[in-house]
């Protein structure tokens, strides 16, 4: 009988490269970055510092290091640091120096992607909006006003890093920097000036004299000495523009972002590992995951339009800072396998052959060192003879052979643990009855409909919203009075460049229109009733993140630019209102209630209005106990923004759902991935849970303020905490992993033979029970295992006995159970 053990050989390692010699110039040659005189094979991961909190940084960085990451890269977000020209912000989540130092403290390197254009699904691509108003400016082209500002900011950041001695040439962690970003994808639109701009950017960056190389990503014509690098889901076919430059991959999209109104993309780890292994197989020596931790678009930083508040990205570390398994663990195993090849990879270029259809072998051999990669880029399994030995290669997979003989890792075979995370819902516990605060429950303030501020102004015609608000607020009121002789039914036709709008007639809500990620424009026809005499038409136009990508994205307008027409009047005629005398108000009357909680204001305690537009809500609450990450479930609310203790947790919009089709339950990793291949969450709200960082919460006496635009019932809001309750592990005889090779780096307790890895995600957890164990041919996936046709009767009790006693002391160190010790018992 052929028995496939579910228990087979474990791959584990705990050997992370720690840079030992700082204070060295960084250079490069055709193989790799050269640090302290030595070529390096490096794995990088993107973490954007403002998308988490300084309190979260050390833990996320440590988990990155534990996952085999050598370099952390981040963009630098200009509009975060210089919201007003000449006024800088480097505090809190914007404390770039503190972030770089936190990475250094963990012993990792930094790739500082200054840009300063970031893209990154970040508001206006990272540019401050005030740039747009500099006379004569043209963005991202050979234009003096733009170049002056770009140079000023780039130099400011470089100087700041130099003063803190953060470049590797000064003993710091920064080994690499980026100038511009993905310009090559759109530069054709800028004509011949694009080339001179890129030359200018290259020489400007080089002149800043950092002692470390600069890269430009997606820029085939990057001038020397700038290294042109690749971004994409795959980069094995990429080669730099000179054979004196190394092959580098600055953005490997570990998953994908999602938008309000869109489904949530996932990228299978087998495919991601395949892409990474293929890159190193084909001569790459530096690869970065975009994102390794995506995080959260707090406040109004998300771009788009319509980018969601969550920027989870299906990254190896999730939005809340919890490792995502098996993605994190499988990539960790991959990184270890690649590092075992480092000496061979830096010694020479690969010799690539094709021993069969869709099979590609790459051998790095110089003197005694030899490492090989065997790729099957086809869609069916294959057997390959290589160096006289036979190897099984699953479809769309790569095996890594650090000694050119033994396979230590195959990208399609996951030995890492899987986890089932769950959300525990708690109703909002209101703080009751202290004498200085009688607000048990919710209180509220109505936001006035239409013009209410003294700084409103009037103008004939319809104005572009971004030019008018300078993005100081999401909101712009367009207000008009018209006089009619007689009452009438009519249809109000409104056209807007986006991103959404609400119409009020004579102080009453009349209708809304919303664009989407593919087309932000709104065209609505709203049936209305007008009265004899004076009628007010109040249109609230709103942005949901300013455009961040594309040629001339900076000029893309928003708002109700018209026409606005009254159709279907009783006498059959139409009234074009577009060039009338409109009155404008930038922002809401009470826009500061969010950050300030309006402590000096009288909040109304009487009957709570529900399902009404334009209401501010406030409550006081007790934080969910414990230390698990916290989110607010906004199901029951419409659209708005929320603040906890004065900190904006971002825009919420649980009523904007993903399309009902286009998703898949089981995503086949085989074949080229793209962002629409493995979608989930169809027909459901794009985002209903919103992260509240623990460090923003006090045990009691927390204030939650919401601005609700469309209508909802805040009593339906719940808190949820995210836990990892269950962990699954699987080992299989069919995983051809020679334990010896791994054991040469092993920790004690592993021994030879199939080893099951067990690991709790949090330091203070222990394994409390075994829910399922099977030895034989079990079926299903983590959380839904079933016994197969062949199974051992004793498996559960043996595993219970072995594992529960293994795990008596709380620790998040991985534990190993050697299956061989119980092998005969299991078979009986
Ligand atoms: C770095 O390079 C500069 C000039 O190329 C040289 O003067 C300096 O000594 C180098 N520093 C180190 C630490 O090697
Ligand atoms: C797959 O591998 C074969 C053999 O090396 C190669 O000719 C082919 O270009 C590869 N296909 C892709 C999409 O990389
Ligand atoms: C590969 O070889 C194994 C063992 O000899 C055999 O069971 C399997 O069917 C072969 N697979 C393919 C795709 O030829
Ligand atoms: C915004 O203002 C700029 C100059 O201030 C002008 O060139 C541009 O056309 C305006 N954009 C729109 C969409 O109105
Ligand atoms: C039709 O009705 C509108 C609104 O009452 C009025 O402004 C307009 O003058 C009328 N047109 C004609 C042709 O009577
Ligand atoms: C309405 O008026 C605007 C501004 O005067 C004009 O551009 C537009 O073409 C008019 N639309 C119609 C349908 O008359
Ligand atoms: C435009 O409307 C505003 C507000 O109603 C009013 O104060 C102003 O006088 C109007 N301008 C003209 C030229 O009618
Ligand atoms: C509270 O709201 C009620 C109902 O809308 C209203 O009658 C009352 O005046 C409000 N009180 C305050 C203090 O605003
Ligand atoms: C959010 O709350 C709704 C009910 O209000 C519930 O149906 C949904 O499952 C919750 N979402 C999560 C992820 O817990
Ligand atoms: C994405 O992948 C799916 C599934 O493989 C395929 O049907 C679709 O055409 C691909 N889309 C693009 C834009 O390549
Ligand atoms: C609750 O917090 C508010 C705002 O921080 C503070 O003014 C108030 O004194 C606190 N009340 C109690 C009872 O701690
Ligand atoms: C800048 C860039 O390379 N964008 C690409 C990102 O990936 C999507 C999906 O594969 C492509 O459509 C973009 O062109």
TrEMBL record:
GO MF terms held by the record: beta-galactosidase activity; carbohydrate binding
One Pfam family hit: GHD
EC number: 3.2.1.23
Alphabetized InterPro entries for the sequence: BetaGal_gal-bd, Galactose-bd-like_sf, GH, GHD, Gly_Hdrlase_35_cat, Glyco_hydro_35_CS, Glycoside_Hdrlase_35, Lectin_gal-bd_dom
Family membership noted in the UniProt record: Belongs to the glycosyl hydrolase 35 family.
Reactions catalysed, as given in the entry: Hydrolysis of terminal non-reducing beta-D-galactose residues in beta-D-galactosides
Keywords: Glycosidase, Hydrolase, Signal
Signal peptide: 1-23
Name recorded for this polypeptide: Beta-galactosidase
Domain SUEL-type lectin: 750-801
GO-annotated biological processes: carbohydrate metabolic process
């Amino acid at each position: 009988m052929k028995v496939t053990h579910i228990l087979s050989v474990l791959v584990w390692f705990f050997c992370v490269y720690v840079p030992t010699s700082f204070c060295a110039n960084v250079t490069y040659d055709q193989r790799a970055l050269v640090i302290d005189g030595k070529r390096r094979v490096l794995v990088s991961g993107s973490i954007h510092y403002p998308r988490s909190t300084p309190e979260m940084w050390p833990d996320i960085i440590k988990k990155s290091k534990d996952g085999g990451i050598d370099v952390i890269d981040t963009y630098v977000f200009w509009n975060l640091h210089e919201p007003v020209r000449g006024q800088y912000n480097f505090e809190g989540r914007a404390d770039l120096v503190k972030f770089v130092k936190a990475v250094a403290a963990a012993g990792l390197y930094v790739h500082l992607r200054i840009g300063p254009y970031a893209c990154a699904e970040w508001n206006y691509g990272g540019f401050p909006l005030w740039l747009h108003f500099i006379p004569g400016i043209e963005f991202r082209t050979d234009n003096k006003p733009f170049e002056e500002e770009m140079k000023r900011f780039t130099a400011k950041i470089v100087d700041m890093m130099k003063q803190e001695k953060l470049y590797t040439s000064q003993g710091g962690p920064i080994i690499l920097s980026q100038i511009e970003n993905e310009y090559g994808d759109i530069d054709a639109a800028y004509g011949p000036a694009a080339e001179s701009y890129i030359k200018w950017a290259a020489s400007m960056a080089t002149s800043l004299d950092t002692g470390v190389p600069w890269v430009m990503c997606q820029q085939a014509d990057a001038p020397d000495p700038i290294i042109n690098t690749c971004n994409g889901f795959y980069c094995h076919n990429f080669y730099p523009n000179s054979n004196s430059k190394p092959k580098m991959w600055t953005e490997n999209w570990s998953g994908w972002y999602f938008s309000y109104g869109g489904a949530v993309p996932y990228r299978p780890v087998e495919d991601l590992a395949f892409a990474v292994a293929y890159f190193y197989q084909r001569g790459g020596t530096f690869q970065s995951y975009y994102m390794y931790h995506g995080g959260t678009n707090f406040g109004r930083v998300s771009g788009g339009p319509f980018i969601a508040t969550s920027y989870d990205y299906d990254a190896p570390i999730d939005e809340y800072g919890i490792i995502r398994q098996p993605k994190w663990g499988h990539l960790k195993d991959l990184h270890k396998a690649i590092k075992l090849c480092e000496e061979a990879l830096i010694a020479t270029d690969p010799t690539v052959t094709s021993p069969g259809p869709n099979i590609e072998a790459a051998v790095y051999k110089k003197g005694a060192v030899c490492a090989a990669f065997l790729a099957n880029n086809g869609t069916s399994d294959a057997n390959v003879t290589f160096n006289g030995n036979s190897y099984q290669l699953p479809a769309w997979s790569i095996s890594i052979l650090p000694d050119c003989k033994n396979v230590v890792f195959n990208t399609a075979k996951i030995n890492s643990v899987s986890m089932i995370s769950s959300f525990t819902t708690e109703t909002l516990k209101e703080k009751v009855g202290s004498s200085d605060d009688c607000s048990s429950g919710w209180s509220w303030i109505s936001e006035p409909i239409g013009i209410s501020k003294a700084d409103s102004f009037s103008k004939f015609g319809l104005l572009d919203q971004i030019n008018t608000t300078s993005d100081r607020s999401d909101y712009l009121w367009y207000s008009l009075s018209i006089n009619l002789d007689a009452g009438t039914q009519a249809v109000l036709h409104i056209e807007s460049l986006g991103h959404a709008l609400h119409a009020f007639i004579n102080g009453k809500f009349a209708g809304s229109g919303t664009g989407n990620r593919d087309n932000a424009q709104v065209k609505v026809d709203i049936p209305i009733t007008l009265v004899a005499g004076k009628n007010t038409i109040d249109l609230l136009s709103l942005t949901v993140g300013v455009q961040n990508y594309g040629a001339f994205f900076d000029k893309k307008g928003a708002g109700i630019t018209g026409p606005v027409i009254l159709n279907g009047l009783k006498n059959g005629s139409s009234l074009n209102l577009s060039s009338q005398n409109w009155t404008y108000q930038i922002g809401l009357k009470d826009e500061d209630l969010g950050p300030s909680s309006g402590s000096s204001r009288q909040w109304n305690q009487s009957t709570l209005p529900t399902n009404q537009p334009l209401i501010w809500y406030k409550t006081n609450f007790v934080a969910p106990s414990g230390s698990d990450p916290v989110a607010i479930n906004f199901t029951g609310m419409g659209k708005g923004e929320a603040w906890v203790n004065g900190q904006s947790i971002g825009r919420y919009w649980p009523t904007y759902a993903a399309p009902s089709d286009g998703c898949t339950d089981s995503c086949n990793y085989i074949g080229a991935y793209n962002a629409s291949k493995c979608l989930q969450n169809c027909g459901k709200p794009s985002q209903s849970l919103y992260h509240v960082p623990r460090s923003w919460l006090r045990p009691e006496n927390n204030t939650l303020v919401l601005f609700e635009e469309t209508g909802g019932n805040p009593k339906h809001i719940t808190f949820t905490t995210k836990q990892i309750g269950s962990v699954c592990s699987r080992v299989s005889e069919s995983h051809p992993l020679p334990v010896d090779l791994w054991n040469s780096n092993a920790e004690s307790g592993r021994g030879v033979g199939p080893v099951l890895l067990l690991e709790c995600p949090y330091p203070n957890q222990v394994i409390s029970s075994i829910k399922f164990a099977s030895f034989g041919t079990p079926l299903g996936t983590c959380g839904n295992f079933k016994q197969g046709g062949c199974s051992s009767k004793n498996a559960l009790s043996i595993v219970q006995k072995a594992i529960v006693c293994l795990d008596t002391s709380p620790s998040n160190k991985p534990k190993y159970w050697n299956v061989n010790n119980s092998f005969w018992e299991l078979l009986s």
